[in-house]
């Protein structure tokens, strides 16, 4: 009888060990799943914030750039009016000096503003692509968890040889997957920083082009008027 009791207790102990092994694996897998889902959610929120902040930044840069061009346009108009008044006060016809040049100056703001908007739009489209791409990379991290669950379900609950390697991989991925997601977020931060620089360059370049182009044409008109007035 004591011998039978011993073997019964031994058997129960073995069953408990086996149950403990599969239960432990299942619990660790669930912990991994929740950890990954939490990391994915945080990443999604961060990417949404990046996209929103970039959108606000791009609009502000575009608005300031357009305002600078429009301010320059007002200054050009004032200078043209002053040159025309100069000819009138001198009693001479200086209309020859304006013509196509004035038409060019009139059309230039619209052309440059359109180019500025298209340049910024290109960066906005690139931002959307980057966000979607990184979001996809982050989202599919859950597939690894699903794969581990599938492998675990194939194991015999009594098979330590089958379960233990999977548990080891689960423990490893509990560290690796969140780190991988964090790496993608760092990458996103860098790419969005570069896009902000590019957006500012769009504005700076177009404002500079407008200023230099109008300066050249106004100088040409001024020289023409002065040559007629004598």
TrEMBL record:
The keyword Signal applies. It comes from the Eukaryota. Residues 1-19 form the signal peptide. Keywords: Signal. This is Protein TsetseEP domain-containing protein.
């Amino acid at each position: 009888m004591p011998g039978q009791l011993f073997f019964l207790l031994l058997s129960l102990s073995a069953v408990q060990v086996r149950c403990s092994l599969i239960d432990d694996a299942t619990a660790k897998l669930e912990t991994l799943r929740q950890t990954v889902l939490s990391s994915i959610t945080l990443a999604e929120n961060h990417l949404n914030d990046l996209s929103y902040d970039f959108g606000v930044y791009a609009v502000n840069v575009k608005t300031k750039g357009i305002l600078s061009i429009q301010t320059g346009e007002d200054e050009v108009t004032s200078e043209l009016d002053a040159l025309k008044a100069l000819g009138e006060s001198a009693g001479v016809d200086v209309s020859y000096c304006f013509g196509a040049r004035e038409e060019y100056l009139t059309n230039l703001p619209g052309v440059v503003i359109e180019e500025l908007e298209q340049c910024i739009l290109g960066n906005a489209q690139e931002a959307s692509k980057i966000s979607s791409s990184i979001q996809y990379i982050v989202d599919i991290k859950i597939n690894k968890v699903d794969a581990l669950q599938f492998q675990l379900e194939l194991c015999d609950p009594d098979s330590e040889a089958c379960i233990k390697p999977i548990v080891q991989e689960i423990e490893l991925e509990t560290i690796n997957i969140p780190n991988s997601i964090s790496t993608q977020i760092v990458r996103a931060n860098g790419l969005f920083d570069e896009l902000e620089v590019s957006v500012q360059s769009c504005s700076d370049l177009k404002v500079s082009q407008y200023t230099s182009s109008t300066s050249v044409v106004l100088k040409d008109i001024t020289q023409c008027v002065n040559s007629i007035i004598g």
